Amino acid sequence: MAKEAASVTLTITMALEDTIPDLAQRKRVYVHVVSTEMMEMLYFLPRLQNLVVVNAGPNVETPCQTNAACDRCRNLGRSRTSGKSHPLDLIARVHGSGTAAWRFSLEMILDNGKPVVFTAYQRLEVEWKEKASKETGARVVEDVEANI
């Protein structure tokens, strides 16, 4: 459960570390983010040169090839862009709800066969996501824990 603004970014970074053995050596990572905009993840992965975020879902900005990294990262030759579709490394589902529509989305996300990380602000939402994930046969890599 989130306590700070960077919580989502740190949760996604931890999921990348848990599921991509050579992450420290990677120059580029593709993350599909469902329903939110991405915060600056480049700070937490110093060797990463290019982060491509594919935002999906309602109320997200359209893809943009403009480098959205901070000035410091851009000066180091690093970039953060958004795109339409890429071969992905991780799917991040940020702050979903426990509705029937979410259940359908969960099944579609898990059918992809790629690692998925879920974030939530409320314990009830966390418990629902954990239960729904297990019911769909998802392999749980990391148990639910609070970000404190």
Quick summary of this structure?
The protein has four helices and five strands; from the N terminus they run αββαββαβα. The protein has 148 residues and is an alpha/beta fold.
Describe the structure.
With 148 residues, the chain is of the alpha/beta class. It has a single domain (1-136), classed as Rossmann fold (3-Layer(aba) Sandwich). Helices cover 29% and strands 18% of the residues. The chain has four helices and five strands. The chain has helices at residues 7-19, 71-75, 100-111, 123-135, and strands at 28-34, 50-56, 79-82, 90-94, 116-119. The protein has a five-stranded parallel β-sheet, covered by helices on one side. Helix 3 (100-111) links the parallel strand 4 (90-94) and strand 5. The termini are close together.
The major β-sheet equals: 5 strands, parallel
| Helix fraction bin | 25-40%
**Which oligomeric form is depicted?**
single chain
Distance between the termini: 8 Å
CATH topology: Rossmann fold
Protein name: Mitochondrial splicing suppressor 51-like C-terminal domain-containing protein
Organism: Armillaria gallica (Bulbous honey fungus)
Pfam families: MSS51_C (PF20179)
InterPro entries: Mss51-like_C
